[in-house]
Design brief:
Largest sheet: 5 strands, parallel
Number of domains: 2
Shape: elongated
Number of helices: 13
Radius of gyration: 23 Å
Strand order of the largest sheet: 2-1-3-4-5
Distance between the termini: 40 Å
CATH superfamily of the largest domain: P-loop containing nucleotide triphosphate hydrolases
Number of strands: 14
Strand content: 15-25%
Order of helices and strands: EHEHEHEHEHHEHEHEEHEHEEEHHEH
Structural class: alpha/beta
Length: 341
Amino acid sequence: MTWQLLLVEDEASVREAFALRLNDHGYMVQTASSGEEALGLLRTAEPDILVLDLVMPNLTGLDVLARVKQTSPNLLVILVTARGTVKDAVEATKLGAFDFVAKSIDMEDLLHALSRATQLLTLQRQVHVQSGQDADRYAFDRVIAKSPATQDFMIQVRELAKNDRVTVLLQGETGTGKQYIARVIHYNGARAHKPCIEVDCPSIPRELFESELFGHEKGSFTGAAGRKTGLIELAEGGTLLFDEIGDLPLSLQAKLLRVIEERMFRRVGGSATIPVDVRFMAATNRNLKDAVAKGEFREDLYFRLNVVTLTIPPLRERPEDIIPLATQFLVRSALSLRKPV
């Protein structure tokens, strides 16, 4: 796929050199020599990514960024500068910039930033397509609820789908469908068109958890060859589900608590504070109250997660659901294998 860029740079020689290099890397580039020209072009043009020089006469890159985000909040904007400061980077992040990179002849940092931006755009488009499919799969009327026990907790599920800010703790034995119900809540709420990302707490190595969750900056540790986008950023606007939260080590529970409380985070090795707009959910097959009493789970994190608790009954307590569930699984398997039922 060819990605379309709008490159805004006031120096003609730099603008032409950058445009040629970006064209060589497969981007379709439209250019503007000022912030005013860029804003005019954006009234009709629909680029995938906006690349802005920070220092320009009249309207600066930050000025343009602020105006663009008012009219096109989802447009990815990368700011480029030869004389940027930490203060500029922080301000750009607050205004909604995707990245803030150094201007250089080889354009290495910009090309890395563009690669990350196109990866995110690809993911967003996949999510958009998948959301339509998932909205059908996880629709309320697809949930098997023949038993009184299931009907009771589905009343609560419907209410939780209406309120996309409430943190939800899903409890139940292994196999009761905690992840499925979390997705039912997500895909029947206001965040349905955004990602629903699952964090498998037991499977992520302790030493990599921060990098996986928060992302990291280039050079923040050995092997960090470029910036990595963390799961929180990938879930922006959507839902982040921490599966088997009870298995999360105590040292990492404190870091998660801080994000939930402050609704912001920093990438590993970064200085810019990034705001968080996600709905947090957690699932566990453990009794977290007992874990708190044993000193295995933080009490303050438990109370943050336990805003609303949804306990999913095991199948033995809802026998009326067994035959319909078996039929549903059989039909799905037959369709996937292209076999008659």
